[in-house]
Amino acid sequence: MDVFMALGDPVRRSLLDRLARGPQRVVDLAADHAISRPAISRHLKVLGEAGLVSADERGRERHYRLERSGLAPVSEWLAGLAPSPLISESALDGLDLEVRRTVRERSTAEIAQPTTTEETA
């Protein structure tokens, strides 16, 4: 299952919101929704196929938890939408180097040449 298809359903997004706070049982997840536990289980199965949740067996119960690594395709897609900087970092590094060199040369030149007030005193 594609991550984006899995996230297309509001119930599944709501389940992920809840699981982001910590592992939950199906019965706890179903308490927040007006749909049956089997329906919640089917949504969790879709999320599991997309790599967004996993389940741990604890006795007779299954505890679901969010798999944050499954959201990587979404994060990468969103990062691709961000605008690129107008000026590259390498250009700014070169400007920084030039400013530092100019400041150093001027301070060296001021030390070498006395000011006009010192000459008249």
Question: How would you characterize the overall build of this protein?
Answer:
With 121 residues, this protein is mainly alpha-helical. It has a domain at 3-72: Orthogonal Bundle (Arc Repressor Mutant, subunit A). It has helices at 3-6, 10-19, 26-30, 37-49, 72-81, 89-112, 116-120; strands at 24-25, 53-58, 61-66. It has a three-stranded antiparallel beta sheet with strand order 1-3-2. A hairpin with a 2-residue loop joins β2 and β3. The longest helix has 24 residues, at 89-112. The protein is rod-shaped, with a radius of gyration of 30 Å. The mean pLDDT is 89.
Question: What general outline do the C-alpha atoms trace?
Answer: rod-shaped
Q: Over the alpha carbons, how many angstroms does the gyration radius reach?
A: 30 Å
CATH class of one domain: Mainly Alpha
CATH topology of one domain: Arc Repressor Mutant, subunit A
The CATH architecture of one domain comes to Orthogonal Bundle
Major sheet description: 3 strands, antiparallel
What is the terminal-to-terminal distance? 85 Å
Strand order of the largest sheet: 1-3-2
Summarize the structure.
The chain has 121 residues and is mainly α. It is built from 7 helices and 3 strands; from the N terminus they run H-H-E-H-H-E-E-H-H-H. The chain has helices at residues 3-6, 10-19, 26-30, 37-49, 72-81, 89-112, 116-120; strands at 24-25, 53-58, 61-66.
